[in-house]
Design goal:
This protein is α+β, with helices and mostly antiparallel strands. It is 28% helix and 39% strand.
C-alpha cells in the first residue's frame, strides 16, 4: 500500500479536549501496555499543560502534551496512531511544540524515551535532541523494567 505524502493529507492541529480523550486513549493503549491512563491526560488538561491533537476529519490520529515551567519545557507524551505513522504527523507535532517552547522563551526542552524506542529516538535526533542522562529501570516493561534515556534540546537565544 502506498502512502500519500504529508502535504496531501487534511490534518488539523487543535487543542486537545476532554471529548477526544477516548480516541487519544485508544492510540495510547495500542502503543504501550504501560502507557498513560486517562487520568494522566485529564490531569494535564486540568493543569492547563499544552495538549494538542492532530485530526483527520473527526478522527484523532496523533497527540502531544508539553509542560512549560520557568525557562524549561518538557515533552511529556507524544503518540501517533499506527495506521497514520510515517506521514509527518510526529514531525508536525514536534515543530508545533518547539514553536510553543520558543514563544514561551524557554531555554531547553527535555524529554524521556524508552531505551528500546529507536523510532522515537531517531525523530528526536532529527530535531537536535541529545542524550544527557539515563534513568535506570524507569519504565515498566513486560520483562521487568526498562531504562529511560533523558534527552535535551537547547534552544537558541530569543
Amino acid at each position: 500500500m502506498t502512502q500519500q505524502p504529508f502535504a496531501a493529507e487534511p490534518w488539523q492541529l487543535q487543542l486537545m479536549s476532554e471529548m477526544q480523550l477516548e480516541q487519544v486513549m485508544a492510540i495510547e493503549s495500542r502503543a504501550s501496555a504501560f502507557g498513560w491512563s486517562i487520568g494522566n491526560f485529564q490531569d494535564c488538561l486540568r493543569a492547563q499543560y499544552g495538549a494538542w491533537v492532530v485530526c483527520a476529519g473527526a478522527r484523532v490520529v496523533g497527540y502531544a502534551v508539553l509542560r512549560l515551567a520557568a525557562d524549561e519545557a518538557e515533552l511529556l507524551n507524544i503518540g501517533v496512531d499506527a495506521a497514520y505513522r510515517r506521514r509527518g504527523i510526529a514531525r508536525l507535532l514536534m515543530r508545533h511544540l518547539l514553536a510553543i517552547a520558543c514563544a514561551a522563551r524557554t531555554r531547553q526542552v527535555l524529554l524521556e524515551v524508552r531505551a528500546s524506542n529507536a523510532p522515537a529516538q531517531a525523530l528526536y535526533a532529527r530535531f537536535g535532541f541529545v542524550q544527557i542522562g539515563r534513568r535506570r529501570d524507569y519504565y515498566r516493561a513486560h520483562d521487568g523494567r526498562e531504562d529511560a534515556l533523558v534527552l535535551a534540546l537547547t534552544l537558541k537565544d530569543h
